[in-house]
């Protein structure tokens, strides 16, 4: 079994038919457990008080906002190189989910920033690059919506995704030159000895797992919708051909 | 390639090409700024580099949607695609022609407009140099966007939505170089990074633009 088997829409539908509910249910369990654990059974932070608890929404959604773009990039590459339609549809399906995660990250950040930094918004590298990422998402979605022919749309959005990734990275590091940072450093990194205190760390991991599964489940669901829409369209065309 | 460049330049300069429109737009934007923020020269000199860069960026955007659209309408784009010149070369030539009719004149009049906005004298050459270095990237990125949206009926608005986020790094480094020069700080680093973006765009984006054109001509 390899990833390429799912290039066949029928295989993909059969696979997701079984695993989409699993991903969604597991995600719900993880989110319920992680959020309740995080909100009610962890102590308040020494300096931040109870506002620290927004981390359980903010960090996972910010992580997934970036990972969704990376997934779209990989799917676009697969479409451009191997012309698997499911891949292009998955990229299309992931974009609105990524937009939502980006918005959640921006809003929870603003809600946290108001009491902590004394401002809803600061023109600061991390915040700004996230806003730019949001604009890239919007452009990508708008281009998909604007083009009627599905294959042309898939091609053009894939090219945009590749170019956009380069420029998003450029912007990410360009903004570092432009203003000083206010945002704290990375909360989680693989090479740090201790990231944050274990009390906060474990519920956070559960929440991250929940968000990843939620993303997977939603992308499956939306890709299935896209595939069905594509089939319906084909059926309609066939009907019209027969009538004519 | 040189033939395409010549043809585009000639089309732009002769009547109806809209040559100079971008320049007038740039001038009007700069003239409107003091009305918007007040005639206080201290304040104007602080925002002058940013305003000039933003004006240049918008003026550049103004003529982008016609870059490939007119050629696609009358079929000459298909002829160019079947010509012995690779499509990448066509995209590059058209981007250069676009730059010579918008970016270059903008950069040349920028010193005069900078003085209107009370830009400190030591920043004027840096601003001009920055615009000279940076506007080719604007034209190149813009021609990529124009290639993406060439098949669309109302591509103009979508084009700005796609292209403006891509302009962010160019704008940051360009405005930063001029602003640091105005404050008497080192301005070489942002200028070098700006040159890097321009060279990178010139080297890579013709391929992306030509890819998009091929899809649209299919």
Structure, briefly:
The complex is a heterodimer of chains A (244) and B (218). Chain A has 244 residues and is mainly alpha-helical.
Question: How is the topology of this model organized?
Answer:
The complex is a heterodimer of chains A (244) and B (218).
Chain A: H1 9-40, H2 55-82, H3 85-117, H4 125-146, H5 150-178, H6 198-243
Helix pairs in contact in A: 1-6, 2-3, 2-5, 2-6, 3-4, 3-6, 4-5
Chain B: H1 2-13, H2 21-37, H3 41-62, H4 66-73, H5 76-82, H6 87-116, H7 123-148, H8 155-166, H9 168-182, H10 188-217
Helix pairs in contact in B: 1-6, 2-3, 2-6, 3-6, 3-7, 3-9, 6-7, 6-10, 7-8, 7-9, 7-10, 9-10
Tell me what the structure shows:
The complex is a heterodimer of chains A (about 240) and B (about 220). Chain A is mostly helical and about 240 residues long. Chain A has a single domain (about 20-244), classed as Four Helix Bundle (Hemerythrin (Met), subunit A) (Up-down Bundle), CATH 1.20.120. Chain A is about 80% helix and about 0% strand. Chain A contains 6 helices and no strands. Chain A is globular. The model of chain A has no long low-confidence stretch (mean pLDDT about 85). Chain B is mainly alpha-helical. In chain B, helix 2 (about 20-35) packs antiparallel against helix 3 (about 40-60), helix 6 runs antiparallel to helix 7 (about 125-150) and helix 7 (about 125-150) crosses helix 8 (about 155-165). The longest helix of chain B is centred in the middle third of the chain and has 30 residues, at about 85-115.
Biggest interface found: A-B, 25 and 29 residues
Q: Could you tell me the number of beta strands of chain B? A: 0
* CATH architectural designation of chain A: Up-down Bundle
Query: Count of helical segments of chain B?
Result: 10
What spatial form of chain A do the alpha-carbon principal axes imply? globular
Low confidence ranges of chain B: none
The portion of residues forming beta strands of chain A comes to under 5%
Q: Please write the string of helix (H) and strand (E) elements of chain B.
A: HHHHHHHHHH
Helix content of chain B: over 70%
Structural category of chain A is mainly alpha
Main β-sheet of chain B: number of strands, strand sense, barrel status?
A: none
Counting structural domains of chain A, the number is 1
């Amino acid at each position: 079994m390899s990833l390429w088997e799912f290039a066949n829409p029928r295989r993909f539908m059969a696979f997701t038919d079984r695993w989409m509910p699993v991903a969604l249910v597991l995600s719900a369990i993880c989110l319920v457990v992680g959020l309740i654990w995080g909100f009610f059974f962890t102590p308040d932070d020494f300096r931040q008080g109870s506002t620290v608890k927004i981390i359980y929404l903010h960090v996972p959604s910010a992580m997934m906002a970036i990972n969704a773009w990376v997934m779209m990039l990989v799917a676009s590459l697969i479409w451009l190189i191997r012309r698997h339609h499911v891949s292009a549809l998955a990229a299309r399906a992931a974009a609105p989910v990524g937009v939502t995660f980006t918005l959640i990250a921006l809003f929870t950040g603003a809600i946290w920033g108001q009491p902590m930094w004394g401002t809803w918004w600061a023109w600061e590298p991390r915040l700004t690059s996230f806003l730019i990422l949001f604009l890239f998402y919007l452009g990508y979605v708008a281009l998909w919506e604007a083009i009627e022919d599905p294959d042309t749309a898939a091609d053009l959005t894939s090219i945009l995704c590749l170019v956009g990734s380069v420029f998003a990275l450029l912007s990410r590091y360009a903004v570092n030159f432009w203003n000083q940072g206010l945002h704290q450093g990375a909360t989680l990194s693989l090479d740090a000895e201790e990231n944050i205190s274990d009390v906060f760390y474990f519920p956070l991991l559960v929440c991250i797992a929940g968000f990843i599964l939620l993303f997977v489940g939603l992308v499956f669901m939306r890709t299935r919708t896209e595939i069905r829409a594509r089939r319906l369209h084909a059926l309609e065309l066939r009907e019209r051909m027969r009538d004519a | 390639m040189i033939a395409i460049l010549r043809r585009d330049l000639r089309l732009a300069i002769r009547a109806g090409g809209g040559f100079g429109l971008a320049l007038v737009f740039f001038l009007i934007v700069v003239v409107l700024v003091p009305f918007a923020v007040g005639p206080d020269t201290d304040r104007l000199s602080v925002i002058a580099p940013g305003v000039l860069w933003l004006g240049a960026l918008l003026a550049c955007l103004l003529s982008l949607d016609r870059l490939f659209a007119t050629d696609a309408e009358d079929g000459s784009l298909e002829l160019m695609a079947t010509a012995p010149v690779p499509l990448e070369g066509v995209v590059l030539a058209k981007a250069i022609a676009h730059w010579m009719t918008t970016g270059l004149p903008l950069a040349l009049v920028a010193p005069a407009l900078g003085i209107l906005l009370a830009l400190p004298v030591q920043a004027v050459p840096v601003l001009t140099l920055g615009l000279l270095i940076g506007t080719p990237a604007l034209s190149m990125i813009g021609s990529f966007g124009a290639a993406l949206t060439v098949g669309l009926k109302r591509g103009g608005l979508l084009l700005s939505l796609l292209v403006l986020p891509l302009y962010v790094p160019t704008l940051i480094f360009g405005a930063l170089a001029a602003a640091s020069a105005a404050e008497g700080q080192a301005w070489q680093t942002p200028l070098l990074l700006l040159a890097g973006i321009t060279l990178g765009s010139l080297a890579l984006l013709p391929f992306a633009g030509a890819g998009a054109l091929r899809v649209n001509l299919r």
